[in-house]
């Protein structure tokens, strides 16, 4: 009896090591944006093995599954990928591991009850069942890994996330009820039907993941269309302003002869001061038709000129120091998304400042990163934390910092927000592509 107990404990410990290996390998091979030192992962693996083993030894399958879900979700979120969508991936995978281990029990009961084998329900029976469960877990791991690599879900709203979690949770509870029934009702046909039902539930959950991946793609498509509309609006405003300036310049050119004659008469009459002031006024009028040149990126130049002109209407001093930083590796729509929304937010905050409102846009190369900073004056009424700040224009509402973050993530960039008493600062860090 003691010998059999030792065998079962050893096999249980080895299966827990296998489960931990599969869990960490699954999280490591999916997309990740967090990298810790090796000793941190080593300690976390040891903790994972010990906690899972402590539950497995006492043969608490439901508690083990719950423990797996909690551990994998938390460790995955803090060690591999901080995106909330991946917490659902880790939870679903953990749930699948638990179900795979559960489903082995009724299958073995049916097979060995029919075969009437002499070692039915002894130590070797239990060991064989544990090993078989790990084989199924390994197969499921490969299937899950290939599936989630191809069917990556990026964007769901809160209601969709709730529905995405609810059905797997309901399926898990349903499977637990059916497996409990097999402990009391041992009719082979009924047990076989329950196993088939569990398999169908697993396929249903896999289909659910595919369905939500399609919904996620539709959400991304709608979002991208909205961004293209924003870019089109900016370009329309730009060319509309150019047309207005062209019409105004034609009128100025038409009157230029009269202006020159007036200046000539002032100088002939030795009214040098008035003549100089007259020429300065003409120069200022002509300069109003110029398009300032901030960067070699034509789209960014359009965005900055548009926002500078908007800021001037509120008396905001906007200065740009881009230091020949090239953003040619970025898509034009992403450049528009990032700078248009951040400058809109800065203008929305600075326009409420009564004394000397300002905005400073800077860009520099720092080691292997492009660092972009947008600093603006603000007052106490500006939204604290500013995570909810959106564009000041109604037609751009909802396209704020959330879409800026999405655009940055395409280039493995990230954003940091700083708030002081009378100043707001957004820093962007984008790795330079070689």
UniProtKB/TrEMBL annotation:
The keyword Transmembrane helix applies. GO terms for molecular function: ATP binding; identical protein binding; kinase activity. The keyword Metal-binding does not apply. CDD domains: HATPase_AgrC-ComD-like (cd16935). The chain crosses the membrane at residues 6-27, 39-58, 64-80, 87-112, 124-144, 164-186, 192-212. Residues 331-431 form the Sensor histidine kinase NatK-like C-terminal domain. InterPro entries: HATPase_C_sf (IPR036890), NatK-like_C (IPR032834). It comes from the Bacteria. Keywords: ATP-binding, Coiled coil, Kinase, Membrane, Nucleotide-binding, Transferase, Transmembrane, Transmembrane helix. SUPFAM superfamilies: ATPase domain of HSP90 chaperone/DNA topoisomerase II/histidine kinase. Residues 211-259 form a coiled coil. This is ATP-binding protein. It comes from Clostridium cadaveris.
């Amino acid at each position: 009896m003691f010998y059999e107990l030792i065998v079962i404990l050893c096999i249980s410990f080895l299966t827990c090591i296998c489960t931990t290996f599969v869990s960490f390998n699954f999280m490591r091979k999916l997309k990740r944006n967090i990298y810790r030192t090796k000793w941190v992962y080593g300690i976390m693996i040891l903790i994972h093995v010990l906690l899972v083993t402590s539950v497995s030894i006492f043969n608490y399958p439901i508690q083990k599954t719950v423990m797996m879900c909690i551990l994998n979700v938390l460790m995955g979120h803090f060690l591999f990928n901080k995106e909330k969508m991946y917490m659902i991936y880790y939870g679903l995978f953990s749930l699948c591991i638990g179900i795979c281990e559960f489903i082995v029990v009724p299958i073995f009961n049916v097979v060995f009850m029919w075969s009437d084998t002499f070692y039915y329900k002894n130590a070797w029976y239990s060991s064989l069942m544990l090993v078989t469960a790990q084989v199924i877990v390994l197969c499921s791991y490969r299937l899950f890994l290939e599936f989630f690599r191809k069917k990556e879900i990026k964007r769901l709203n809160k209601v969709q996330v709730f529905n995405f979690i609810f059905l797997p949770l309901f399926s898990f509870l349903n499977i637990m009820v059916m497996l409990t029934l097999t402990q009391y009702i041992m009719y082979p046909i009924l047990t076989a039907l329950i196993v088939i039902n569990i398999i169908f539930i697993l396929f249903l959950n896999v289909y659910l993941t595919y369905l939500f991946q399609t919904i996620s793609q539709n959400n991304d498509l709608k979002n991208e269309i909205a961004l293209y509309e924003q870019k089109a609006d900016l370009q329309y405003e730009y060319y509309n302003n150019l047309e207005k300036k062209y019409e105004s310049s034609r009128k100025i050119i038409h009157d230029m002869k009269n202006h020159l004659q007036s200046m000539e008469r002032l100088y002939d009459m030795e009214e040098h001061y008035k003549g100089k002031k007259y020429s300065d006024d003409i120069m200022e009028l002509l300069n109003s038709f110029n398009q300032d040149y901030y960067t070699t990126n034509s789209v960014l130049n359009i965005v900055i000129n548009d926002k500078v002109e908007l800021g001037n209407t509120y008396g905001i001093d906007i200065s740009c120091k881009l230091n020949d930083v090239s953003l040619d590796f970025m898509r034009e729509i992403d450049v528009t998304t990032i700078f248009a929304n951040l400058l809109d937010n800065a203008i929305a905050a600075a326009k409420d400042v009564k004394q000397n409102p300002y905005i400073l846009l800077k860009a520099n190369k720092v080691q292997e990163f492009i660092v972009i900073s947008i600093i603006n004056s603000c007052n106490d009424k500006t939204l604290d934390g500013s995570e909810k700040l959106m564009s000041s224009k109604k037609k751009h509402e909802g396209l704020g910092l959330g879409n800026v973050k999405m655009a940055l993530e395409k280039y493995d960039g990230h954003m940091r927000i700083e708030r002081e008493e009378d100043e707001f600062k957004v820093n962007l860090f984008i790795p330079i592509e070689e």
